[in-house]
Amino acid sequence: MPGILLATHGGVSADGAVRVAASLSKRLGVALTAACVIEPRVTIDAGAGVPYLGIPDDAGEIERELLAATSTQLTRYGIATPVRLLLGSAATEIAATARTMNAELIVLGIGPHGLLDRALGHETALQLVQIAATPVMAVAADAITAPRHVLAAVDFSPTSFLSVRTVARWLDAGDTLHLVHVVQPPRDADRARADETSVSGSLATALNAIVLDLALREGVTVRTTVAIGEPAQLLIDLAEQEDADLIALGSHGYGIWKRLTLGSVASKVVRVSTRSTLVTPIGCLGAPQRVEPVASQRPADWSGVEASTSRGVR
Hints:
alpha/beta
């Protein structure tokens, strides 16, 4: 059944995810399915393998407590939906369930982990970005409702376009969509100064063309920005400055080593930002493709788009 898959454990760190998932479900008119996961224990012995230990004898009690906590949390926010109990690796089971139900979005909490935990890739959200075929939204614990101010990173990849189109469907009158393309500064300062004007101008035109291709509701404010700097940090700083509810971006396909070390801009934003983050994984693409922006001009009377260029965020 298509809709939104909410992954929660009933804890406080998932409260924001529950509120946002319920709000989006209502706004979009789609079903909301809740799931919680029990991960089996493993042990490492002196051998070469990692043997499966299995769920202990008190598994029934663990299941009851988890289901009770999750059901209590959902009831607290007025959500009446059955809870699926999944057994296995959290990221693997959540991704598989989302594929089975043809979910359009996975929502889960960012979690209480510190920076070191995120850098080591211990968060389920980070793992989901690597393996899911469904957009993944990691929600801050203090989030109240569906995002109303979205900062969307556009690198002209298919997944970044999909992220923009996904969030565009969520926004209503009074909401804001800010499209940002970040250019890495060239090492050659003279070449950077010479190329900045022409490059920024063409990129701004391309961003405006993307906006024209979106089915935005009347009353949504749209801004476009071309900025120069380190992409992940600039996006995080900009989101803080304008108090964005959500950073949306796409993830790229990488070789196994880069995937394991989580070296992409998307992964850096997920593990460092305290803001809610939406990532469209490479697995969302049915086949390798390239989506080109619509070649059209910005209307003279369209005051909803503000194009700007900066060398960074101060």
